[in-house]
């Protein structure tokens, strides 16, 4: 069994699985099928809401999110709060999971505020080492060029998203529509708060928009906001999580979306 990279993908995850008896015709048919499934949602979108960490870049490509989560857990334990998190939350090794858990137990507290501040600092440290998602930069520019309006709707700090976009020369494609984590931590996705902020600010109907996300919380937020959803799954594990959540239209690469917009498909 081999894997055939799709375009400028990184090794491994962003690949199309190919078996030894897969023919070029079968590959072409599969790619055409992906394109066909994208035509309606992509063609209808006048506003595109991007999750940040995943579809735009891998924020923690150079600094592990797991390491950040471990350090946050250790900081909590250093405050004498070892029992604050469940074993499942502690084992998640996801900083966002930890932040949501602490805020649920101590909403609008100094503790939650301090954890959020620490996470923002870690995200800012990670931003210079973030890895662009393959095809994301040209897709963002192409979508802007054909007249769509773009927004970032993320659970990450908006400071981090703005810093990364500036480093890639993409600020003008989104400005001023970057909607990230706010002091209202209970409104993180899957709450649709950031999506609704974007739609309201842009005067856009949910049906005219398309959300691109890589996590079940993105899909759930899009559903609650009434926004059509396109899943981006850079590996089989992420695809399974999205499908288990109910997402139907999922791509393993942004390349077919880019081809569609450029009229090459």
Mind sketching the topology for me?
Blueprint (H helix, E strand, L loop, with lengths): L1 E4 L9 E4 L5 H21 L2 E4 L6 E2 L6 H14 L8 H6 L2 H11 L4 H17 L4 E2 L3 H10 L3 E5 L4 H10 L3 H4 L3 E2 L13 H10 L6 E5 L2 H10 L3 E4 L3 H10 L4 E2 L3 H7 L4
Parallel strand pairs: 3-6, 3-8, 6-7, 8-9, 9-10
Antiparallel strand pairs: 1-2, 4-5
Helix pairs in contact: 1-12, 4-5, 6-12
Walk me through the structure.
The protein is globular. The chain has a 6-stranded parallel β-sheet, sandwiched between helices. The chain has helices at about 25-45, 65-80, 85-90, 95-105, 110-125, 135-145, 160-165, 170-175, 195-200, 215-225, 235-245, 255-260, and strands at about 1-5, 15-20, 45-50, 55-60, 130, 150-155, 180, 210-215, 230, 250. The protein has about 260 residues and is of the alpha/beta class. The chain is built from 12 helices and 10 strands. Helix 1 (about 25-45) packs across helix 12 (about 255-260) and helix 6 runs parallel beside helix 12.
Question: What is the average of the pLDDT values?
Answer: 90
User: Which outline best applies?
Assistant: globular
Main-sheet strand order equals 7-6-3-8-9-10
Q: Report the end-to-end length measured between terminal Cα atoms.
A: 28 Å
Query: From the alpha-carbon coordinates, what is the Rg to the nearest angstrom?
Result: 19 Å
Number of helices: 12
Uncertain runs: 1-19
β-strand number = 10
Q: Strand content of the residues, in percent?
A: 5-15%
Bin the helical content: 40-55%
Largest sheet: 6 strands, parallel
List the secondary-structure elements in sequence, H or E. EEHEEHHHHEHEHHEHEHEHEH
- Structural class computed from helices and strand pairing: alpha/beta
């Amino acid at each position: 069994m081999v894997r055939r990279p799709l375009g400028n993908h990184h090794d491994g995850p962003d690949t199309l699985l190919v078996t030894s008896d897969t023919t070029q015709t079968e590959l072409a048919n599969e790619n055409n099928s992906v394109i066909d499934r994208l035509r309606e949602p992509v063609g209808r979108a006048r506003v595109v809401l991007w999750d940040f960490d995943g579809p735009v870049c891998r924020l923690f490509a150079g600094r592990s999110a797991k390491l950040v989560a471990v350090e946050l857990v250790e900081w909590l334990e250093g405050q004498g709060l070892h029992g604050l998190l469940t074993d499942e939350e502690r084992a998640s090794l996801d900083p966002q999971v930890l932040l949501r858990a602490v805020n649920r137990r101590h909403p609008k507290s100094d503790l939650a505020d301090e954890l959020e501040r620490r996470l923002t600092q870690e995200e800012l440290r990670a931003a210079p080492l973030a890895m662009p998602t393959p095809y994301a930069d040209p897709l963002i520019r192409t979508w802007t060029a054909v007249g769509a309006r773009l927004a970032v709707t993320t659970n990450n700090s908006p400071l981090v998203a703005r810093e990364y976009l500036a480093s890639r020369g993409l600020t003008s494609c989104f400005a001023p529509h970057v909607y990230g984590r706010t002091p209202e931590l209970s409104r993180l996705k899957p709450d649709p708060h950031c999506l609704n902020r974007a739609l309201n600010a842009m005067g856009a109907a949910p049906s005219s928009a398309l959300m691109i996300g890589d996590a079940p919380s993105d899909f759930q937020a899009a559903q609650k906001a009434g926004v059509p959803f396109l899943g981006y799954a850079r590996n089989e594990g992420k695809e399974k999580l999205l499908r288990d959540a109910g997402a139907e239209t999922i791509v393993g690469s942004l390349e077919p979306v880019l081809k569609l917009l450029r009229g090459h498909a």
